[in-house]
Design goal:
The structure holds two protein chains of two kinds.
Chain A (H helix, E strand, L loop, with lengths): L1 E12 L2 E12 L3 E5 L6 H8 L7 E6 L2 E6 L10 H8 L2 E4 L11 H11 L5 H14 L15 H13 L5 E5 L7 H16 L3 E5 L3 H7 L2 E6 L2 E6 L1 H6 L4 H10 L1
Parallel strand pairs in A: 3-8, 3-9, 6-7, 7-8
Antiparallel strand pairs in A: 1-2, 1-4, 4-5, 9-10
Chain B lengths: L1 H44 L2 H16 L2 H14 L6 H26 L3 H9 L4 H31 L11 H12 L3 H28 L4
Helix pairs in contact in B: 1-2, 1-4, 1-7, 1-8, 2-4, 3-4, 4-6, 5-6, 6-8, 7-8
Classes of the chains: A alpha/beta, B mainly alpha.
Chain lengths: 252, 216
């Protein structure tokens, strides 16, 4: 089953052509790492999946529903606004800068959207939130405000917050780039646990070892295009493209 | 002892002035806070026409003297046929004036919230109004408390302009007693009363700030 289909996506920022016709399909249960030099359009591609950035041309489908279509692509949005909203809710997202709600405790962060959006009662929301916090190993920190948590703990709460909405797909936008080196491991291990549950995941990352270990496919982006879409074995051990060779040599 | 008796004898008059001052003050705050909040949201997110009108509003009301605004409403509007009771006229003028300042305070507060907060709320499926109500406004409140406190204290002092347009507020009553008795005491009493009210407000906002700071 195709979870996300991106068709010929173009994106401009103030006249700069950031995505130059990117097409991508993500299948159920797949774990995809997107890597590449900074400014290559990795994060923008991810943010185009859930409309944090509007596309200038192309179309985006989530679980078979066209949620965005721009320009002359032969595809139109036929779903109702309600169906489009529901489709977007199938995606959870984790940000580089966590974006926890600072005025709410860890638990408050996790129960907020289920209560507000899914109209869950407080008891049920708390029960579910505690399950998620336990999963990321932070149940004992549930009453702590984000300001009292380390970067790694904040990111794990952010993951629990996204999981509490029962997403089919998780998007990670450089989830460890803002962390001190000694805190990266705890976040990566939470993501690895999710991988074992066969959650569909798309991860923009600079952690090459992690990408190699966890991914089903590695996508290399360069200058707004997908240069390579390959299994990690071939990608890392036998890079075909000189651009990728140079990049990997710098990273490893 | 004579002195204390004198103070006690003028207190009932002064108190009636204080009552009017307090009435105008409370009514103004009650209206100006929502006006400021709504206008701030309108400025941040409203359609172009609304944004333009709101800029015009804050530009005029913050850019002209409050005393002129009071003269305009009290003496100007009746000439073109709009007659308001002095209390209504005063409350409207102070509300629009204070509301303009609060609009800018709240707008600054809302705009100081990181855009990552909106993005996090959006990817969790929250609507714009849910995001404002649950995520943005509560954080804004904490940030705007100090400037709002200044505005609230300023407003106490600005109510003294009621005396100039002939309303029997705290200052005007004190002045009348002064003219009658040629005694400086009513001014001293007014002085002390204004100070007490301002201090209570500062204290109140301090408590609120503490309450809203628990998450920092």
């Amino acid at each position: 089953m195709t979870m996300i289909r991106m068709n010929n996506i173009h994106k401009y920022f103030a006249g700069v052509h950031v995505l130059k016709g990117v097409s991508l399909e993500v299948n159920k249960g797949e774990i995809i790492s997107i890597i590449g030099p900074s400014g290559s359009g990795k994060s923008t591609l991810l943010r185009c999946m859930n409309q944090l950035e509007k596309i200038d041309q192309g179309s985006v489908e989530i679980e078979g529903i066209v949620v965005e279509a721009a320009g002359d692509v032969g595809t139109k949005i036929t779903a109702t606004p309600q169906e489009v909203r529901t489709a977007y809710r199938k995606m959870g997202m984790v940000f580089q800068s966590f974006n926890l709600f600072p005025h709410m405790t860890a638990l408050g962060n996790v129960i907020e959207a289920p209560m507000l959006v899914h109209k869950l009662g407080k008891g049920e929301a708390v029960k579910n939130a505690e399950k998620q916090l336990n999963k990321v190993g932070l149940l004992e920190k549930k009453d702590a405000f984000p300001s009292k948590l380390s970067g790694g703990q904040k990111q794990r709460v952010a993951i629990a917050r996204a999981l509490a909405m029962n997403p089919d797909i998780m998007l990670f936008d450089e989830p460890t780039s803002a962390l001190d080196p000694e805190l990266i491991g705890e976040v990566l291990s939470v993501i690895k646990n999710l991988a074992q549950e066969h959650m569909t995941m798309i991860i923009v990352t600079h952690e090459m070892g992690f990408a190699k270990e966890i991914s089903d496919r590695v996508i290399f982006m360069d200058d707004g295009k997908i240069l390579e879409d390959q299994s990690p074995a071939v990608f890392f051990d036998n890079p075909r493209h000189p651009r990728i060779k140079t990049f990997l040599e710098k990273m490893l | 002892m004579d002195h204390l008796e004198y103070v006690l004898s003028i207190l009932p008059f002064i108190a009636s002035g204080l009552k009017l001052t307090a009435k105008v003050y409370v009514a103004t705050l009650l209206f100006a806070l929502p006006v400021g909040l709504l206008a701030a949201i309108g400025k941040v997110k409203g359609p172009k026409i609304i944004t333009r009108l709101l800029y015009l509003y804050t530009w005029i009301w913050r850019g002209t003297p409050l005393l002129l605004q009071l003269f305009f409403v009290f003496y100007g509007l009746p000439i073109i046929g709009i007659r308001l009771s002095p209390f209504t006229a005063a409350t409207i003028t102070y509300t629009l004036n204070s509301g303009a300042y609060l609009t800018e305070i709240f707008r600054g507060g809302i705009e100081s919230i990181d855009k990552g907060q909106y993005e996090a709320a959006k990817v969790l499926g929250m609507t714009y109004s849910q995001t404002m109500r649950r995520i943005i406004i509560p954080q804004t409140v904490r940030r705007v408390l100090p400037p709002t406190c200044s505005e609230a204290v300023n407003l106490v002092k600005e109510t003294a302009l009621l005396a100039v347009i002939g309303m029997p507020d705290l200052l005007r009553i004190a002045t009348q007693i002064f003219t009658r008795d040629f005694n400086i005491t009513p001014f001293v009493v007014a002085f002390v009363l204004y100070l007490i009210v301002s201090s209570v407000l500062v204290k109140l906002f301090g408590t609120l700030e503490k309450k809203y700071s628990i998450y920092e």
